[in-house]
Amino acid sequence: MDTLRTFPFRVDITGNFLKSERLQKARMDHERGDIPFLDLEAIESEEIEKLVAKQKELGLKVVTDGELRRTCRYFDFFWGLDGVEMQDFKHGHRFNAPPVRTESVMLTGKIGFSYFHPVMQHFQFLKSIAGDDVVPKLTIPSAGQLLAELLKEENIENTNEYYLEIHPLVEDIAEAYRRVIEAIRSVDCRFLQLDDYTRDMLCEKDFIKIKEVFGNEPEDVLRQLVLVNEFSLGQRPADMLISLHICYNICELAKGEERRNPSIPETLHSVPTDAFCIEYNGRFPGEVEMLEFAENQSAVLGLVTTNSSKLDNLEDKDQIRAVIVNTFKYVPLEKLRLSLRCNFTSDREEDKITEEQQWDRIRMFMEVASDIWNGL
After folding, report:
1. How many C-beta atoms surround the C-beta of residue 359 within 10 A?
2. CA distance 335 to 115
3. Which of 77, 78, 74, 53 is nearest to 65 (CA)?
4. What is the dihedral sign for C-alpha 326, 330, 336, 340?
């Protein structure tokens, strides 16, 4: 494992998999009070064991627990930090169409991390069942994700009760993340993925509210979204592989809302990770070209949709190969890695893809990767 920092995996996965009908029913039963938490936890563990076995069967060298223990995309992790609790807006998130989840975050004090987070226990279980022939990976939302959530229009007044300026907020988030990453490493996690969806989150009315409350111009706010990720890894463990998954297509954006995005090149230059995953869907200019800015990291190209039962424009192996070959203009093959695109849709959201389609996508993707490298 001494070479882990070289990112030896030619095929990676973003981490999330569909939740089985059995698990979805168990979670609803628990929320209604029909079964205790220990029963739900036992079912989660059984489903994770099946999931890990399936990933290994398909030849993946990196396995995850599918994020099957999460109730919401990334909020569960935030709720495990000091000073952060759940709040329920009773309406779906603004960027979802149609609205689905209603939970968010609220501050009850200064942000911090004491000594334990539930993901540590979750990873220990994953590692115990993974075996020595694969690398178990833990996925958590990035520090920038928490900052963006706290700066959204519906959250900013609560945030301002505890932070009068943005910069101390950035410092506390970064310090909490430094501590939690150290704690995650203490349970023998050697591969951590940070998911960053901030490119989709803040719209113009958020920036208007931020300037009204904190006085910061949009350009400074965007810079802070990059800096908090950089600062959070300032004391990263030397023997832990860390990747940053940049996603900007997790949801159908609300119509008519202008959005300003953190600079991808700036992110790739400054955040000290070993690999970057940028998703490609052929609809945004410069998607592949962005990877050339990952000068000192492996470049992971996310291909093939995972949240629709219909394949998009990359529905053919030859089309996928053509995109990969085009990538060689910007990233040499020895630095390039491949991944599926953002997570399989599941949980309470409408499932747009079946479990069998999920595995078919991975099989096809593994075949393409095998062709590119003449064997994984």
Report:
1. 16
2. 36
3. 53
4. negative
Distance between CA atoms of residues 148 and 65, nearest Å: 26
SS3 354: coil
Which of 133, 127, 139 has its CA nearest to residue 48?
A: 127
For tokens 């908090």, the residue is 228
CA 43 to chain centre: 24
Do residues 61 and 124 lie in contact, with contact meaning Cβ atoms separated by under 8 Å? Answer: no
- In one-letter notation, the amino acid at residue 41 is E
What is the model's pLDDT at position 98?
43
pLDDT at residue 351 in the model: 45
Mapped onto helix, strand or coil, the DSSP state of residue 119 is: helix
**DSSP per residue, 290-318:** GGGG-SSSEEEEEES-SS-SS--S--SHH
> Considering the entire predicted model, what is its pTM?
0.88
Name residue, tokens 């981490």: 15
Non-local (6+) Cβ contacts of 235 within 8 A are: 178, 182
Distance of alpha carbon 35 from alpha carbon 40, whole angstroms: 7
Let me know how many helices (H) and strands (E) the chain has, helices first. Answer: 12, 11
pLDDT of residue 12: 86
The residue written with tokens 């939970």 in the block is: 103
Strands 336-340 and 11-12: parallel
Q: Are 316 and 40 in contact (CB under 8 A)?
A: no
Residue spans of the chain under pLDDT 50: 1-3, 92-99, 249-256, 313, 346-351, 375-376
Beta bridge partners of 300: 277, 337
Check whether the bond before 265 is cis (ω within 30° of 0). no
Number of residues in the chain: 376
Distance CA 70, CA 74 (A): 8
Q: Is the Cα torsion angle 356, 65, 9, 193 positive or negative in sign?
A: positive
DSSP 248-271: S-SS-PPTT--B----HHHHHHHS
- Predicted pLDDT of residue 3: 43
What one-character DSSP code corresponds to residue 361? H
